[in-house]
Amino acid sequence: MATTVAVPPDTSQDPDTAALIDAGTLSRPHRTRVPLPRWLRRLAGPALVVAVWQLLGTLGQINPRILATPSQVAVAAWQLTSDGELGTNLLASLQRVVVGLAIGVSAGVLLAVLAGLFRLGEELIDSTMQVVRALPVLGLLPLVIIWFGVGEQPKIALVVFAAACPVYINTYAGIRGVDNRLVESGRVVGLGRLGLIRHVVLPGAVPGFLVGLRFALTSAWLVIIIAEQLNATSGIGYLMNQAQAWYRTDIIVLGLLIYGLLGLLADSLVRLLERRLLVWRHGFNGA
Fold it and tell me: Residues in domain ABC transmembrane type-1 (predicted)?
């Protein structure tokens, strides 16, 4: 019994058909995709959480005295903004965090440079900082109040302490983590001690500093939440503490959202610095 084998048509003699096949014009037409901006895709997750949260509140599954709905939080934000109370307290919190970060980050960088570049500095500073960073920040609150009273100084002091330690640890690790082959290459091309520090060591420590700065920003906002709820007359933490007495969960949630948004904004600023200062580094961006 003869077997019939289907033989595809020979297109080797037809250059036009072969060109069409190679170009993919005979294949199935593809759809044109319109890519969404990355920031919009990143908002999809939080937006879904807010939608579910609002739905559960509308259906009565969440007691508003326990957790206010997003719409109630929005109404509270509008009321506090209209009478100026929100802006005044937000400005007070920002001032405390900015001053504390300026002092803490500067102190952390200075100590890290001294400990990272000089052996004597390492022996005098590093062991002390390792002990200090193990201390609980909020555990120092009673002692800080005794030292500075109940005004602005204890709140700023706690932010300084919370910011200085992560900046020191990561900057110091960045300095000591510079590849020694780069240092040797710098010596080969004629760089002296100051030239090595300026062109090799300090630029190589920038990634570590930025990691420390990111942790410092987060720690500063965490600390100021507690500091402003004790012996304070202004600030977002003070506003939340006052709302607790009246079971105003809408204001409490609003304060938490403000802290979260400020932390996200601060992290975005650090990411911008990374893109500007680390243009020479190409890392993995995800598959």
Answer: 86-270
Domain that holds residue 262: 65-276
CB-count exposure of residue 251 (10 Å: 0-12, 13-18, 19+):
buried
Indicate whether 20 belongs to any domain.
no
Give domain status of residue 9, yes or no.
no
- At residue 6, the pLDDT reads 52
Tokens of 162: 């919370």
In this prediction the pTM is 0.77
Structure tokens at 83: 């009478």
As to burial, measured by CB atoms within 10 angstroms (0-12 exposed, 13-18 middle, 19+ buried), residue 209 is: buried
Residue 52 in any domain: the answer is no
Residue 40, classified by CB atoms within 10 Å of its CB into exposed (0-12), middle (13-18) or buried (19+), is: exposed
Task: Output the average pLDDT for the chain.
Answer: 82
